Amino acid sequence: MASLSLSFSSSIVPSSIPHHKSTKIHTQDSTFRVTCFAISSPPSKPVVKKRHWKKGEFPGTSETSFDDSTRRTPIKNIKRKLEKKNSAKAWVNTVTESLSEQIDKKQWLQALQVFDMLREQTFYKPKEGAYMKLIVLLGKSGQPHRAHRLFTTMIEEGLEPTPHLYTALLAAYCRSNLIDEAFSVLNEMKRLPLCQPDVFTYSTLIKVCVDAFKFDLVELLYEEMAERSITPNTVTQNIVLGGYGKAGKFDQMEKVLSSMLESTTCKPDVWTMNTIISVFGNKGQIDMMEKWYEKFRNFGIEPETRTFNILIGAYGKKRMYDKMSSVMEYMRKLQFPWTTSTYNNVIEAFADAGDVRHMECTFDQMRAEGMKADTKTFCCLINGYANAGHFHKVISSVQLAGKFEIPENVAFYNAVLSACAKADDLMEMERVFKRMKDNQCQPDETTYMIMIEAYRKDGMNDKIYYLEQEKQTLITDKKIVSHSEDEIYCSDS
């Protein structure tokens, strides 16, 4: 096979790429040459056997260096005390470790239940760090009202709030697009002398306004920051850049970028590069993506793994498999690791095309290299099997996700619901929807759109009516917290 190269930059791809086995994918439009990613993994390091020290022997010394008179046998009373102490701590360690485990797994309901058990014990006094982790977890899990109740409980138990805790609570509201509540938290912070908002607080609030395309609020927040002598940092500017790009306000985007280039304290970085090229990559404007990549390289900004993943994702969506393969080869040459995101982008490209064979090949190599799959991986697999009409493999993918303890978020359920709709299995779709709500995973706009379209296809207008009513209750009015939610978790206030 001839050497592959990217047409837009010699700085990305080496002058020659080693030959490797390839296959052709035939579509209705044309024939694509796709690299089979059968690249051998780097050799594993030799396993060094650890030495088990003998009784009386210490590392770096010999047993013969001590005579019998220098050796002491453990005192029985001290030994019993140590065993008793360790036994007393065993339950504490088990429960606190369980709390950390539930947080790491992003299982917010189980984490709150374990936290309640701990708070009932006299020996456990939760500190700021525990509340911070739980508030952040609840925010990421779409549970801002629970985060607020936990924050209130913390204050009632005598812990002083900090700017970081307030910012975490504000971020929880922002993640659920509750802008009014987020601004209420900001106003409360401004009233407390020891909890004044900082650049991170404003950046978090600016992001939710940018995502909602409320650029008038962004300008007001910038003015407020100037009044408080808070200078926007590179993160803040990158957020605004991405917002202008998504909204198609490219003139404003270039204006912000120009101000960053002229600034001495807020210079563009690799995240700026990633933000700009992802804007054009997501819009399918490959030429503009390549042009801006070149500009940032001329600015002296070097790409990173995420930069290459963005390029791979953009090429994959346009089915430009040669360029996608070339970037992956170049990553190998520069010793940039292929990450879960790298594989997800390739799997998604084949899934969108309904190319099950190459999708499975990529997934198998991902597992062979010891790369851990995540929720997006299985969303792509489910979508790919559904697009190809292999609905029996959708079931096996869901079962495998359960075996791997993959978090089942809104995107995961939406992928399964979409597969059921494509298979015209409305009964199974309703069962998945019920399980979604039973697992405290709140549906979003996409969830209802999938189900309404499936019902409309079969002319089930009565179910469409009830579903739209439920949608108004659960999505439009997010301020309402149902009584059933309160029964699951009640704070000891």
Question: Mind sketching the topology for me?
Answer:
Layout: E1 22-26, E2 31-35, H1 76-104, H2 108-119, H3 128-140, H4 144-156, H5 163-175, H6 179-191, H7 199-211, H8 215-227, H9 234-246, H10 250-262, H11 270-282, H12 286-298, H13 305-317, H14 321-333, H15 340-352, H16 356-368, H17 375-388, H18 391-403, H19 410-422, H20 426-438, H21 445-457, H22 461-476, H23 483-488
Antiparallel strand pairs: 1-2
Helix count equals: 23
> Which geometry do the CA atoms define?
globular
Mean pLDDT: 82
Sheet with the most strands, sense and barrel status:
2 strands, antiparallel
Keywords: Repeat
Pfam families: PPR, PPR_2
Region (Disordered): 1-24
Organism: Vigna angularis var. angularis
Folded structure, characterized:
By secondary structure, the chain is an all-alpha fold. The chain has a domain at 231-302. The protein has helices at residues 76-104, 108-119, 128-140, 144-156, 163-175, 179-191, 199-211, 215-227, 234-246, 250-262, 270-282, 286-298, 305-317, 321-333, 340-352, 356-368, 375-388, 391-403, 410-422, 426-438, 445-457, 461-476, 483-488; strands spanning 22-26, 31-35. A two-stranded antiparallel ribbon has the order 1-2. Helix 4 (144-156) runs antiparallel to helix 5 (163-175). The protein is globular. The chain starts with 21 loop residues before the first strand and ends in a 5-residue tail after the last helix. 33% of the residues are buried. Residues 1-35, 38-44, 47-71 and 479-493 have low confidence and may be disordered. This is Pentacotripeptide-repeat region of PRORP domain-containing protein. It holds the Pfam family PPR. Residues 1-17 have a biased composition (Low complexity).
